[in-house]
């Protein structure tokens, strides 16, 4: 009934459209069957199968996908250029990786970083602190130590990490995720590993480390770590299952 005041079309966005009640959907159907020429309806949903078939049949369907880290970085670079924000490229990749494909989340986080550190050039270390990505760096160092196959070194590392306040349960989760990335990188190769959304620095490190592991060894390592993670929930000494798992891993022929 209401014509647009300025533009040619009036756009109505129905978010979470699958949550419409049956009565509301039927009421909307009448409008969709004979839509006024000036009105455009956008039904946004993550569960299209729940939309009434009578409504879905009258819609054009568009699938939105997560953006790749490089695409997000390009947009963030443009924003920084226009806003006069000085920031390291690695910091932008860290922000993009943390956004999990969402440009909105990346832009929000960039704003938070700028509000805290924007007076000078924003460093990757600043972003790591906010993201809690320091733990990721510890995981990379830990894997390097494991490759040396020195039980004393890895146990000392775990002990020092615990003394510094590192949450060992979260550390194991990060370690499992990291070995998963190494395994996938090992199997699919560098060209097809783009879906892992690695920063250039991460990609080079994982490429180097993956060359030191066999595929079967990585599967064994992941199974050992997953088992340790489950045991940590019930262990009287939190670090014990991880320490035993680490020593077991060192016995594997990488």
**Would you list the SSEs in sequence order as H and E?**
EHEHHHHHHHHHHH
Give the low-pLDDT segments. none
State the total count of DSSP E strands.
2
Oligomer: single chain
| Overall spatial form | elongated
Number of helices: 12
Radius of gyration: 25 Å
The amount of helix comes to 55-70%
Separation of termini?
70 Å
Q: Could you give a short account of the major beta sheet? A: 2 strands, parallel
Walk me through what this model shows.
This protein has helices spanning 22-33, 53-56, 69-83, 89-98, 103-117, 124-131, 134-147, 151-163, 168-188, 200-210, 215-232, 240-250; strands spanning 10-14, 39-43. It has 254 residues and is mostly helical. Strand 1 (10-14), helix 1 and strand 2 form a beta-alpha-beta unit. 19% of the residues are buried. The mean pLDDT is 87.
List the main descriptive attributes of the protein structure presented here.
254 residues, 2 strands
Topology:
Elements: E1 10-14, H1 22-33, E2 39-43, H2 53-56, H3 69-83, H4 89-98, H5 103-117, H6 124-131, H7 134-147, H8 151-163, H9 168-188, H10 200-210, H11 215-232, H12 240-250
Parallel strand pairs: 1-2
Helix pairs in contact: 3-4, 4-5, 4-6, 7-8, 7-9, 8-12, 9-10, 9-11, 11-12
Question: Can I get a quick summary?
Answer:
This protein has 254 residues and is mainly alpha-helical. The protein has helices at residues 22-33, 53-56, 69-83, 89-98, 103-117, 124-131, 134-147, 151-163, 168-188, 200-210, 215-232, 240-250; strands at residues 10-14, 39-43.
